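Blackboard transcription, Thursday session:
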Amino acid sequence: MAATIKDVARLAGLSIATVSKYINGGHVIDANSAAIEQAIKTLDYRVNTMARGLKTKKTKSIGVLIPSVRMVFCMDIISAIEDELSRENFSTMICDCQGRPEQEAVKIEFLLEKQVDGIIMMPSSNSSEAARRAALAGIPVVLVDRRFNTMECDRVLVDNRQLAEDATTELLQAGHRRIGIICGPEDIYTTVQRLNGYYQAYEKLGLEAYNDCISFSDYSLEGGYKALDSLMELPEPPTAVLATNYETTIGSVMAINRSGLKIPEDLSFVGFDSLDMSTLVTPALTMAIQPVQEIGEQAARLMLRRLDPQDKNKKSESGQTHSDNKYKGEEIILTGKLNRGASIKTI
Amino acid sequence: MAATIKDVARLAGLSIATVSKYINGGHVIDANSAAIEQAIKTLDYRVNTMARGLKTKKTKSIGVLIPSVRMVFCMDIISAIEDELSRENFSTMICDCQGRPEQEAVKIEFLLEKQVDGIIMMPSSNSSEAARRAALAGIPVVLVDRRFNTMECDRVLVDNRQLAEDATTELLQAGHRRIGIICGPEDIYTTVQRLNGYYQAYEKLGLEAYNDCISFSDYSLEGGYKALDSLMELPEPPTAVLATNYETTIGSVMAINRSGLKIPEDLSFVGFDSLDMSTLVTPALTMAIQPVQEIGEQAARLMLRRLDPQDKNKKSESGQTHSDNKYKGEEIILTGKLNRGASIKTI
DNA sequence: CTGAAAGCGCTTACAG
DNA sequence: CTGAAAGCGCTTACAG
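(Written on the board underneath:)
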């Protein structure tokens, strides 16, 4: 049988109130702390989180909801979130929709039943009734890499528009005009942003984009492979390609190598998020890099801030609380950076 | 304020005991169930898991500990575990050691503090003091893809020896003799098993293996890339290569393509665990496939079985309980299969 | 089938 | 700084 605070109190010769105070970081005279510490050790005592939670109404757990565990980007972010949360003694409950968007509502309900203190999510679509319900129930929701159309919500974003613009500009300045871009699903937030950046690069240089060079995929390895092939099968193939996530970058490179094309002699190339790969192949690939680690960290921190009552006064100052219907959500925008390699040929 | 069982009871005009019984699946006369159901709906009532847990001494959560979230194999298994556990209303708490084995003990302690009902883990080494402590504390531990040297533990394994033997035999029968193998870290369980299978294939055909064709890696994409390069730089390069996990398979293929070698004309190749890739490249790759989905499922089921008291009688029959020091652990061995492509040339 | 009551192991004002 | 006591929201024998 596991030891309880009662056992510790008895062994230390003190009341449970004192032991509780000690455990929670309150001040207790030295002799007593020593006795308590000793008792905890001998009994191998661990606080019963459920009894504590019942009183405090907090589980110290955060639900993390992602569209699919099979995307490196998601996993990197989860890893960073978990790391940051565990530092504050929060546990991370991961829910994977396995690529099935209809699972999202089910999983959110599951998390709510599990009484998580908050939810960090990367939604599959641009709105979520379930997320709204959670927010209304007082469970903070933090969005990662997405926005909702129908509801303002705390969120951590990367300036993907700028990053895609930088990548495209790099290619345009090297003289490329027909630049293939391998996007994700057409309607999701990051695709829209990256495509905006792509167009904007042309626009700023007074050039016109070629719509037949725009290819949508499911952001998978296979999708990238096929997208690259179909781009190269165009009557007039692009002279450069930009892949916009980890998986499509790898898929593209495989397709390029397979077809016998040489980078950059036959095709210039810029990848996304695959820092590990960029140095692997020769020549080194120019790569647009998102600060994945920081995304996860910031999302975790933002959540922690929402949960921590210590900024109560701040809230009332700004008038931004969850029940305030003018609430706009806090937005954190991080910037990516372009890592220059030798995969672009000047023409 | 969230509604409690008391509120539901009041609204339904019944006692909390009856409501509790209803919630937990007990029989209640129809009129009353309807009233309770109605009350739950109107109040948007959800059981307080902490209050329940305090009584039942169960959190209905399972900790899952993996060496690194950056391995596709781990993620696939986690996904399956989560899916299976959530079906039984268990939540999954994921802890990632981020490739740092020294984190393992820390994370296990974290899970214990969080009072998970059980731990499913893929340990980084061949023993774990922390895992032993957990098991001793009555927390079931299920190992995935690993065994401990120092302690018997429930485990779900794949017959990697057989799978590697099959793959190697396939190459030997095609006439290859110098077969490169890209393993993982030298001392981990799967590496040992796969290497055993490799040797055994030679042995069964009365042939001798070439030790210089054996290459160890960290199972990463980069590791696979480099391992392949160094194999091909041998004074006498292998005529075939077997990569033994997802990442080294992708890395190898990239290195092969990059070097201009053609599969299978210049080099025969067998990969591992990369079903998505095997059909992607031309020719289709012969691939050793582990039943990842099933590994996760079985691990979850095994854990659930350990937790469910309904097999109490069975336990006493077999005399296998956790406190029994002759306990050998339950071992589930799954078999992989070789998916034949056209990446092997007969010589 | 239903209800009154005890108790799970904590935290938290409130006294002292 | 310390302790007695109430109470968090459930479940579970035990009566009826």
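Lecturer's comment: Confidence is low (pLDDT under 50) at residues 311-325 of chain B.
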